Structure to design on (461 residues):
């Protein structure tokens, strides 16, 4: 019995000794021990030590030690994704750091962590406040070159502020943040910059597309100019996206706003870059086509011819499937057609259709056939229109009923009209009625023109 009592007393003494040692540990030692465990990826063990502390026992400790304790505790909570306790502890750490006027290192990291935690909870406004504090206190002019921690926090904060401003649709402020993250020579900074840059560009592109969908073309041009200023500043004017945005802007100027002179300047600018680009470029091919359209729309046929020669040579050498050289004549015809110069339009369209492979796009081919027939009719060549359309329908009518019935309805109408012009009212009725029936199926009604021509044919039959 005495033997067992001795053993029990020995364990009791050892336990008292352990408790005595624990009581002798300072808050700084406890914090250091937990911090070491976190460094060894033992955050749960670290939390066990920190949570066993009765912080009231250390209420007389200085703010520096209390700040460190809460910072390490918040870090451990953050690692196990306990957001609520992490937020509480980081806030306590900040409170004690601020009491002693310490606004570097762990203080900035605490602010940054709070920004991330609140952002992940959907509290963007609160997150913005903490990221702004990092920017205020993380002034790079006060940072020694050898200590990069504050710069890391600063760049991180600007990056996150940029993302928040994008969500708030404040592209101006997002761009200012982008400029602050533009620090070369560090993989992390460059990653932040690339992400924010791409998001800003994509945001602007989305706005441009929305403006175009809503026919707000002048607003689209302003957004294109903003995009170009950003891409040009950061990537340079030789960047492929810079050319693409210019081409899109010029397309709106030309085909939506009919500002041909302004569009010409942009298309010529894009084409001038071919001397810097060794490989074939789709935007340059497209610009040659659209430039020819603009010149034809302005009746500058000498420039049309000059551009046809240069453009044909470039498209031929480029050998891109979507840009066969003969398509230049289609754009020339479209430009002449736009300004009602049907004689010129006919000359260009005929060259286009006589090429070896005019069907570089089925819809384009069908539309040009139809537009050429209109040009023939308006130029008093009804037999040419009739021959063209009958030949076309022979090979394409069945396919077009499914693939492009809207153009087919117009082709029926124009064929009927061309036959009317040579006073063959009986045959004209066949195609005019086909057009009417197809229009009724597509739109629920037929155009007044088609109905009037049908009545005229009935009266003269």
């Amino acid at each position: 019995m005495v033997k067992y009592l001795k053993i029990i007393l020995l364990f009791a003494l050892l336990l008292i000794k352990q408790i005595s040692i624990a009581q002798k540990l300072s808050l700084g030692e406890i914090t250091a021990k937990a911090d070491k465990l976190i460094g060894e990826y033992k955050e749960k063990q670290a939390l066990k030590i920190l949570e066993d502390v009765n912080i009231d026992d250390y209420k007389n400790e200085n703010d520096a030690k209390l700040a460190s304790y809460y910072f390490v505790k918040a870090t451990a909570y953050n690692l196990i994704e306990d957001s609520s306790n992490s937020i509480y502890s980081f806030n306590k750490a900040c409170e004690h750091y601020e009491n002693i006027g310490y606004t570097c290192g762990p203080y900035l990291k605490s602010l940054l962590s709070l920004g991330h935690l609140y952002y992940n909870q959907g509290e963007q406004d609160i997150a913005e406040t903490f990221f702004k504090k990092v920017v205020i206190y993380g002034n790079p002019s006060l940072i020694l070159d050898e200590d990069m921690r504050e710069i890391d926090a600063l760049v991180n904060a600007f990056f996150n502020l940029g993302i928040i401003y994008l969500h708030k649709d404040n592209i101006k402020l997002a761009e200012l943040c982008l400029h602050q993250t533009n620090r070369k020579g560090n993989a992390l900074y460059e990653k932040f910059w690339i992400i924010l840059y791409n998001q800003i560009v994509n945001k602007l592109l989305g706005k441009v597309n929305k403006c175009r969908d809503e026919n707000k073309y002048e607003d689209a041009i302003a957004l294109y100019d903003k995009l170009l200023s950003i891409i040009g500043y950061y990537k340079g004017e030789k960047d492929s996206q810079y050319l693409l945005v210019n081409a899109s802007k010029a397309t709106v100027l030309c085909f939506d706003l009919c500002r041909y002179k302004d569009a010409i300047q942009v298309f010529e600018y894009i084409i001038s870059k071919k001397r810097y680009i060794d490989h074939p470029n789709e935007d340059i091919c497209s610009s040659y086509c659209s430039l020819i359209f603009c010149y034809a729309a302005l009746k500058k046929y000498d420039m049309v011819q000059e551009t046809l020669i240069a453009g044909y040579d470039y498209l031929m050498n480029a050998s891109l499937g979507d840009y066969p050289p003969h398509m230049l004549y289609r754009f020339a015809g479209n430009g002449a057609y736009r300004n009602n110069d049907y004689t010129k339009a006919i000359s260009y369209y005929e060259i286009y259709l006589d090429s070896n492979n005019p069907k570089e796009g089925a819809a384009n081919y069908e539309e040009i056939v139809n537009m050429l027939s209109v040009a023939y009719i308006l130029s008093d060549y009804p037999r040419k229109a009739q021959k063209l359309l009958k030949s076309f329908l022979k090979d394409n009518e069945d396919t077009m009923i499914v693939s492009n019935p809207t153009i087919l309805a117009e082709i029926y109408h124009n064929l009927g009209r061309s036959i009317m012009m040579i006073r063959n009212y009986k045959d004209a009725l066949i195609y005019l009625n086909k057009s009417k029936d197809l229009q009724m199926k597509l739109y629920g009604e037929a155009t007044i023109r088609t109905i009037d021509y049908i009545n005229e044919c009935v009266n003269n039959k």
